[in-house]
Each structure stands twice: as structure tokens, then as C-alpha cells.
Amino acid sequence: MVIPEEDPRMLAYLFIVLAVAVRLLPHPWHLTPLGAALLFFGAKRPMREWIAPMLLLMSADVYLTSVHYHMRVGIDQFVTWIWYVAAMGIGYALVRKVNPMRVVGASLASAISFFLVSNFATWAFQEMYAKTFVGLVQCYTMAIPFFRGTFASDLIFTPVLFSIPYALSLLDRRTEAHVRG
User: Fold this and answer.
1) What's the confidence (pLDDT) of residue 135?
2) 6, 57, 85, 137: which has the fewest Cβ within 10 Å?
3) In CATH, what number is assigned to the domain containing residue 141?
4) Buried/exposed 154-177: b ≥16 CB within 10 Å, e otherwise
5) Is the pLDDT assigned to residue 2 strictly greater than 50?
6) Which of 163, 144, 140 is nearest to 152 (CA)?
7) Rg of the chain's alpha carbons, rounded to an integer?
8) pLDDT for residue 1
9) Are 14 and 21 spatial neighbours (Cβ–Cβ below 8 Å)?
10) Number of domains the chain is built from
């Protein structure tokens, strides 16, 4: 059984759906595969297809923000959506060469950039913190517990997701050898 070349790349869609599902369910310790799924999608799918995960993620965010958290969708949410595109862009940088160091580097860039961008947007566009340097520091400080989960999620899930196509190809080769043998 030969896995068509397109099937491993279709995993990108599966991983996005999985990331949305995990975000909609309770996820202890703030562990979700969202950053990893965005990196993988950016690495495996052409830019013209990035609209599909964006629409799905935006819909989930609007639902979570307005229904689950009972908040309004604000400018800070748009900043997060721009970050989603940036995360896929980080993944796109892996297209030419995927190796363990580059995958770990991408996961670090994803986690750190999300922390910096999303919390700056929270400070700038919500009324939770004073619009001073002290307020900005307080915003970042209060976000550290969430950053731990994002950081751990990206460092755990990114290598796992990028390893799955390789694992499937090894399984396919082994199955093919067993059938022939």
C-alpha cells in the first residue's frame, strides 16, 4: 500500500480541525496543538489554502470569546488572527528543509511571538491594564502562567505533528515489505 503524496499533506487540515476541537473542549494546563497545527499547515499547504484554517479558527474564536467567555470580539482578536497568518508564515519557512533543529526553532518562535503579540494587544486594546509601562509589565507578568502552557504545547506538539508523516511513511514501507515478503 503506497500512501499517495497528497495524503500526508492532508494531515495539515486534520491537525487544524484537531486544534479547534481541543480549544473548544476543556484543556488543562492551557495545552493545545494550535501553534503546532498552524506551523504544520504553513509548511505543508500552499498560501492560497491558508484561508480555510483562518475561517475555521476565526469562527471558533468568535464563539469562544462571545459565548463561552461572554466578552466582545475586539481589535485584540484581530491581532491574534494576524498572528495566525504569521505562524503559518513561520511554518512556511520550513518548506525547503525540515529538520529537528528548525522545527524546535519554529516552535520557540511561535510560542514567544504569540506571547509577545497577544499580550501587547490585550494591554493596548482592552481596559484590563493601565496604559503605562507598569501596566504593560503587569499584563505580561499576569500572562506568564498561560505562556507556560503555550510554550509546552508548542515544544511538545510541533515535533509530534512534524514526525507523523515520517512515521506513516515508515509504516507504509514496512507494510509494503511485509506484503511482498
Assistant:
1) 98
2) 6
3) 1.10.1760
4) bbebbeebbeebeeeeeeeeeeee
5) no
6) 144
7) 18
8) 43
9) no
10) 1
